[in-house]
Amino acid sequence: MPGREAMLVQRGPKVSVPDPEVRFVWPRIELAESEVEALAWRAARVGYLGCADSKALLSISGRPPSAGFDTAKQWQPLSDGAATGGCVLINVGSQTHLDAALRAHSLSDPRDQRRARQRRTRCWYRPPNVAEPVRGSGGNCVWLQFSDSLPAGAAVKVAYSLKAALMRRWADHESTDPPWWVSGHGTPESRDFQLARFLVLPAVGRRHSDGRLHGACVWIPDAAEAEEGAMIAALARTLGEFHVPGLGDVGTTETDLHSRRRRWAATPIRWATPARQWVTAIPALSDRHGFPSRADVVRWGVQAGLPPVDDESVQVSRRRLLVGGVELRSHQMARPKHRSTRGFAHVRFALAEPVLGPVAIGAGRSYGLGLCAPDEQPCSDS
């Protein structure tokens, strides 16, 4: 065809693993020798992986190698809800997926074959060179996703309404008053003053983030009794919906990481990634009057139970420091029927060591104020 010879042809990149030998181990599967032999014959017929440049030699054995396995090269699957910082997401199959593929292959109509395809289960793996974080922010979390996104200016109102709905449900199921770490009343002197946190989750950190609220995280402190904590978690998961004055009823469902309709801002992957540098997505409320200072941020870290805050790394700003960060006015920083005259600001800071989120600092942690996201700037220690 005319002009085709003038086109520039560039070879694409080639990607290869650092170690030419990769092993997959299934220690809990028991196969007969005939089954292992049949699988070995099938593996020998695989000559490449996806394209002609990715040549491979596959072999299957029913016994471990005589030299054993090198633990320094083993990839560990993560448990559900674990932080995924530095990890790799891999599509894995199962017997269900294999049966579905065989059924689809037997269909004569190609359109029926495409309809019969199922999404594979996805699993996170931690590479051997990524160390597990040595410290977490404490507490247990229940992650919820809203049926519709809510305006960012109603962050405190939504958090307050969510707490009120859980306390009403507690009263419907229990004859006793809600625990002190939920209501905030009657805190024992011998306990750390860490209350439950109702963190609303805005869409921040991406190019087109607008700060709208996509979900919530109910953070249950470690000081909670096991039975009471499990009860609050169960009530949060089965809440269904709650009413927000001025916004109406808001539907909630527990966040499903494998659902196509999940929202990134409502997943633990967004907020619970281990990091040393953090930046507020929602302004932090000061425990004193006046505009917050660096010393105030250092004190907030101690109050929140975090590792020491590096004073030199603290940045305090009246405007948001993160794309889509929520900017609130004074009347929006207060709970309904309350007034707030204390200072507030967006802050960026670095901790002495990495921690697992979610992280919230400041005086309004119980209502989602001071919610922090892992900083976009890379950190070698995280």
Head-to-tail CA distance between termini: 54 Å
What's the helical proportion of residues? 10-25%
Average pLDDT confidence is: 82
Quantity of strands, as a count:
14
**What characterizes the major β-sheet?**
6 strands, antiparallel
Structural class: alpha+beta
With helices defined by DSSP (H or I, 4 residues minimum), what is the helix count? Answer: 8
Poorly predicted regions are: 378-382
Order of helices and strands: HEEHHEEHHEEHEEHEEHEEEE
Description of the molecule:
The chain is α+β, with helices and mostly antiparallel strands and 382 residues long. It has 8 helices and 14 strands. It has helices at 33-44, 95-106, 110-116, 155-173, 180-183, 226-237, 268-271, 294-303, and strands spanning 76-77, 88-92, 121-126, 140-150, 197-202, 213-220, 241-244, 248-254, 275-280, 284-285, 315-317, 344-355, 359-360, 371-374. The chain starts with 32 loop residues before the first helix and ends in an 8-residue tail after the last strand.
